[in-house]
Amino acid sequence: MGMVTFVDETTAGSRGDGWGLEIAEERLALRELIRRRVFQEVAEYHAKRPEVFQGLVQPEGAERTLNGYALRTPRRIDPEKQTELALRAFERNGFLVLVGDRQVTELDAEISLPLGVEVTFLKLVPLVGG
User: Per DSSP, what are the bridge partners of residue 65?
Assistant: First the structure.
């Protein structure tokens, strides 16, 4: 079992604090890695009940805030639905995924997860006028 570190970055240059997730497999499809990340984010949100959800993608019915996404009405977030939103965002180039220094471009691509690997989610910011 190894620790994978997830780090969020934006094209504007901000870099979030990394956080770890235990992954038993040495190889995993990107789709499954995203699913596990999202399920962990949702579980932590439900356990702590913070004012904002700090996740990979914006839940439906939430408003973007400085530090995450605020739900208009407090409710449970469905991890399956949140995973679907994340996978669609990846397919629409809402974010890139770098495993170590290699970009993964396909959801079904098998990726190697050596001990201590860093997985960066680079959130793409739409350009004004573009």
Answer: 68
Distances (CA, A) of 33 to 8, 61, 103: 14, 25, 14
CA pair distance 115, 107, nearest whole angstrom: 21
Average pLDDT rounded to a whole number, residues 36-45 = 96
Beta bridge partners of 19: 6
Q: For residue 25, which of 100, 110, 120 has the smallest C-alpha distance?
A: 110
pLDDT tens digits along 78-93: 999 999 999 999 999 9
* Angstrom distance (rounded) from CA 100 to CA 115: 11
User: Does residue 127 surpass a pLDDT of 60?
Assistant: no
Contact call for residues 51 and 67 (beta carbons, < 8 A) = no
How much is the pLDDT for 130? 43
For residue 58, the 8-state DSSP code is P
Q: How many CB atoms lie within 10 A of CB 12?
A: 7
- The rounded distance, in Å, linking the Cα atoms of 13 and 8 is 10
Other beta carbons less than 10 A from residue 59's beta carbon = 19
Helix (H) or strand (E) holding 50: none
